[in-house]
Amino acid sequence: MLIGIDVGGTTTDAVLIRNGEVYSTAKVPTEPGDLLKSLLGALDEVSRGVPPEQFERVVFSTTVITNLIAEGKTERVALLLIPGPGVNPASYVFPDSFCIKGAMDYRGREIQPIDEEEVRGTVSRIRDQGFLRVAVVSKFGQRNPSHELRIEEIIREMHPDCKVELGHKVSGKLNFPRRVATSMLASATGEHYQNFVSEIKKALEERKIRASVFILKADGGTLPIEKSVELPVETIFSGPAASTIGALAITPEGQTSVVVDIGGTTTDLALILSGKPLIASKGARLGDFLTHVRAFAVRSIAVGGDSIVRVKETDSGLRTISIGPERVGPAYCMGGKEPTPTDALRVLRLVEVGDSQRANEAISSVASSLGKSVLETASLIVDITAEMIAQAVREMFLEWEQEPAYRIWEVLQKKKERPENVVGIGGGAKGLIAGVAEKLNAKPVIPSHSEVGNAIGAAVARPTLTLNLRIDTEQKVYSVAEDGEIASLKFTNIGNFNRMRSEEAETLAAKLLRDRAKRFGISEYVEEAEVVSSEVFNIVEGWLTVGRLFDVSMQIPAGLIPEWSRRGKA
Predict the structure, then answer these.
(1) Hydantoinase A/oxoprolinase domain spans which residues (predicted)?
(2) Considering the entire predicted model, what is its pTM?
(3) I need a labelling partner for 485 at 20 to 30 A (CA). Which of 15, 18, 95, 470 fits?
(4) What string of pLDDT tens digits covers the 570 residues of the chain?
């Protein structure tokens, strides 16, 4: 049996899957101040009456990291940066940053040593200002981390109570500002996340659940919970990822669709192209920060089934309806205090939730202000909500169409067209998706169990893993971006380094990915790894080629575990 649990802004959904089919589902209110309580409440509800020894796999989609960042509850982090030449430190918007001298070139060769006296003075300032967390990031530290490592030694000597995060271990990709942001967020949230994982493991032990436990990541893949503490920021946006994988699971294979997940607080948008979710090529954005976190190309908008419906008067005296962005509780028909789109859907009998009399009361209060009938007002509210979502999809397409994967998909289609399906996920989908699809001139699709599609996505998502390999044959070294380590080519089976071919580089990348997958306990999916990109550049000095640089990117892509059946899904 498989269990998937997804924490949403309004409800926490859970699903129990048995023999490839949905066996039971559960929904409990999400308590923003106590996500663990919400998760365990949903777990207990969905598993009631089932012996714990029958569970094989439990997957959580969590908003712990996202909420910490959104609510400003992260720990203070001092950023000790080594930007090198060509970068104006004043252009950075990072708080609590300290820039010091030192530089590596793009191949990892030292061109300016660090000034240890300056470093010690900076560490003294950091200590005196009360910082207990420091992220050390060098511009090309992923090519040679010796500066970062030496600074770490000095920090541990002078400020032993301080926790140190090194940029080359958090991300080995180029783009210094993104690596700084990712390192800062990893340091700021790591301890909170470790506590969350410890509490989860303790709660499962108390329930005698011995199943494998995973966390859903932003790229739609899962990671063993023990390993997730090494990569806490990768769990951001796991909610939108869950809805995307859920749509993939409960729609026919290979389809192209816009995924619209309508919750109580927000609506999440994603795109599936010929059965493959679209990945954001530039990484996830968290507020004002762009990161190196691999994630689906998604957007969340502040409109949902429980958004407040208000009547506003324009400067010309015309009364109009506004929806959201606030949510102060459930819909009026569910015991809330304000009229919402859910109440309008209940009046129109598009959903069967809550108290119909209370729904009529809520919409009547709006209708009286507009001078319209209750049915006219309910229809207007639903239409406005659908148009807000449809407009967000139109705007999102302007971003999606810039993604390399989307452009390749269009070329393969041999014609310019947009996806024909709009797949509805979430509690509000049944009432709103038809209207959204009509406005987008697309076909509405509401699969079975769409109301818990996020939880299904969490339950059946398979592990993902990426590996970015860089080889410098002149220096006879290679590095794996995700590990932050530099190793000698002498210990590989490659013969003449200077005559190395792309095929040999890709073979080495595949071997290293297998080793990494084994360390993470997900070796069973490594044979499905694929090369995402492979490039080679000659190193020329004095009209002669003296070496080659190889950049190979491989991944175990997002997908579904074989235990999930597509029988009857549509």
Answers:
(1) 179-464
(2) 0.84
(3) 95
(4) 999 998 877 788 999 999 888 999 998 888 877 878 888 899 999 999 899 899 999 999 877 777 677 667 778 999 999 998 876 666 666 788 999 999 999 888 899 999 999 999 999 999 999 999 999 999 998 888 899 999 999 999 999 999 999 998 888 788 888 899 889 988 888 888 888 888 888 988 889 999 999 999 989 999 898 888 887 888 887 878 899 999 999 888 888 899 999 888 888 899 998 888 998 887 777 767 778 888 888 888 888 888 999 998 877 778 889 998 888 888 999 999 999 999 999 999 998 888 999 999 999 999 999 989 999 999 999 999 999 999 999 999 888 888 888 887 777 776 666 778 899 998 788 889 999 999 999 999 998 888 899 999 999 999 988 888 999 988 888 888 877 778 888 766 666 666 788 898 999 999 999 999 998 888 888 888 999 889 999 888 888 888 889 999 998 988 899 888 654 454
Query: Which residues are CB-contacts of 212 (< 8 A; sequence separation ≥ 6)?
Result: 56, 57, 58, 224
Q: Alpha helices of 159-316 — where are they, by DSSP H?
A: 167-170, 176-206, 225-228, 238-249
Half-sphere exposure of 16 (CA within 13 A, CB side): 19
CA atoms of 462 and 45, how far apart (whole Å)? 24
**Domains of the chain with bracketed CATH:** 76-190 (3.40.50), 251-446 (3.30.420.40), 463-554 (no CATH)
